[in-house]
Fold this sequence. Notes:
6-stranded mixed sheet, 12% strand
Amino acid sequence: MSNSTTKNNKLFIYFIAFYILSYYTLIIFFKSYDAILLIGGTILQIVAPLVAGVMLIKQFYRKSIGSIRYFWLLSSLASFSYAIGMAIFRYNFAYSVQYTSLSDLFWYVAIFLFLIALISVMAITKNTSKTIQYIFDIIIVMVVFVSITWYYVIEPIISSALEIGLMYTIVYASYPIGILMVLFALLSLFYSSENVLPKKTFILIILGFFLLLVSNLYYLYLTINNLYEQGSFIDPLWPFAMLLFGLASLYNHEDFKVKGKPNIRIVRKSGEIFDFLTLKLILPYLCVLTIFTFMIFQGVLEINSIVIGSIASTLLIIVRQILTLIQNSELLYETKELNRELEMKVQHRTKELFEKNQQLEESMEKVGYIAYHDSLTGLTNRRYFEKVVKNEIEAAKRVNSKLAIMFIDLDRFKFINDTLGHHIGDLLLISVANKLKSIVGEPNVVSRQGGDEFMILLKNTTQEETEQLAEDIIQELQSPILINGNELFITSSIGISLYPEHGILVDSLIKRADTSMYSAKEQGKNRYQTFNVKMDDHVTMKVNLENGLRKAIEMNELSVVYQPKLELGTGKVVGLEALLRWRNSHFGNVSPSTFIPIAEDTGLITKLGDWVLREACLQIKRWINEGIQDIKVSVNVSTIQFMQKDFIEKVSSILKEISLDPEYLELEITESSTLDMDIAIHKLKRLKQLGIMISIDDFGSGYSSLSHIKNLPIDILKIDKSFIDDIENDKSNAAIVSTILSLARNLDLVVIAEGVENERQYQFLQEKGCDQIQGYFISKPLSVDGVRPFIESMYQQSI
Ligand code: C2E
Ligand code: MG
Ligand code: MG
């Protein structure tokens, strides 16, 4: 019990003492003041059961104590019923109202409820030690009580039956019977076991009931003999009993019963004779003594030496018997203690062994868990996956069923990780893992291969089902993921291989799913691809391309072409976009959309990017020297390049080296470079300080929105070709472009439409007030030599 509850209990004990003392003060000092006695007595009689009722019901609402709750509920209801009975009784008493049995009704109910409450506790006691000895003890106590009650209460009621009338007889007689039943229940409980309730609670309840019992019987005795007056010394005993119940509830502490078997150890300090057990043993003897005492005081016997002698010898025998009993019980107690200690030791040892075993099991489990799980996402890992696939292939072979393996890779995850940090990257992976788990479901297996790669095994499936699921995964992963307040957009590429069509071994199935995933990436990411035989060649091709690209600069295979940008208002060429070209002796012309992703994957992009930047700057310088002025050249910057720590320094050192005026240079970055706003803003500001213009390339194809862009220090927005395609027919594309245009105007940004291929697109953009256009409609990318004639021809046209 905590300190505060002990304090509460103490306070309540003081309250009880104060309450009962006040009552006695009232009785003693205001005996002749009827009104005060009546009012004070009424209040004190009613408040106590109400207080008890509230305290008892509180125990009912404490959920932890199981079926014993009903004991508290019933005794609380009994207290309230008792209070109502008392209120009616007092009212009748005060106004000398003709006797009605209404108060008796409520008291009956109270007795009945108390009785049921006690029985409900008895019902829970399991180790009822109903030994013959205890049954005898109960019978002895009952016999004594019944005899005394009979003599003083029941017989007088019966003998005055004619006088008081039948109704009174029944009412009066039913009380002692009810009370005796309560006594019987109490005794049974007392002799059965005390471990349903905490010891103090139990003792207080028994005490309370005993008090009620004695005071009620005495009250009946007084009433029958017309001796009862208000202000009798027994009056405070009722509220006292009620408050004892309240106190009992305070000792019914939380941890009792919850921990399982309560502590039933009877603490016996040396010299403390009258403990629970002793009381149990000597109670029948006390009762015999009591009835002897009554006998003597009633003068039933003529006192002579023989009577004195027989009483004295009986008493001596009783005392001797008690002493033997105490001795026995002490011996018994010691044996029990020894036993208990032994038991405890055994228990302790068993527990220790059990715990050790459990620890061992747990660590075994842990080892197994770690060996087969990914610590970040909690998914199973590659090792586990391969094992399962192997088993499933065996099973599928037997029943002739199909399996599918999906290889999932998150597109541009590396960017997120590099730009937003590993922590965000980790959170994103966890969220993706959870999404995958919930889409895929049992009995299929989701596992993490490492990095941003996941694998899924689908059991007993078909190609259609698998592709449908791949589609679902792509859709689900596309929806924004909120991490630390950032709305992250991630897409995924999925490769699928099927058993048995694409392989019958674990390795080949996984490898082919992987190959298909790369193929999906090459086709533009955010899609799935099922394996086909051509892909194997493709992979070899990719490896060869990578090797070729490594030597491209040295082999002089690279060149830059320039695509003009036209200003719609003036019809003049105002800029050129530098685009990298690679012509390999073996592969011929390789498209940037093929080799740029390979360069990005392998990190070669920084080397290539630097080369293009220097190349373009040198070319601008040449053009300026040749007299072509007022034309800006934009150079594409990959995110990996942009995120390099020394990117700004590199740019500025190239400009210095060539001594090129920075205002001729424009850098095209993509939205993924701006994922980390702080870094992006910082870098862009420094670039702008150098005097370089910045444009956002492929706007709309990536992650961000205009609200994201508006905080960035940029100058130009290049609307992605996908919005311009079909703009003349596709209403939603047209609407998007119109909105981007009007918003960009508000943000003071120049807008360039990319990939304009025909007149109608041109017209539309002109009408909507787009600033510049770029596309085959104006010109395909031009070699260095082609630029000058083109600019001149356009200049001619514009005038
Ligand atoms: P981008 O920066 O959006 O460049 C525009 C791409 O669209 C170019 O493709 C260009 O040839 C093409 N294009 C322009 N007008 C039209 C049109 O009307 N119709 C069609 N169908 N296509 C049009 P290219 O040169 O193949 O480059 C593709 C992408 O490769 C570029 O997209 C850019 O992201 C990347 N790239 C090219 N050169 C470099 C470079 O030097 N560095 C980096 N980091 N990326 C580069
Ligand atoms: Mg570009
Ligand atoms: Mg573009």
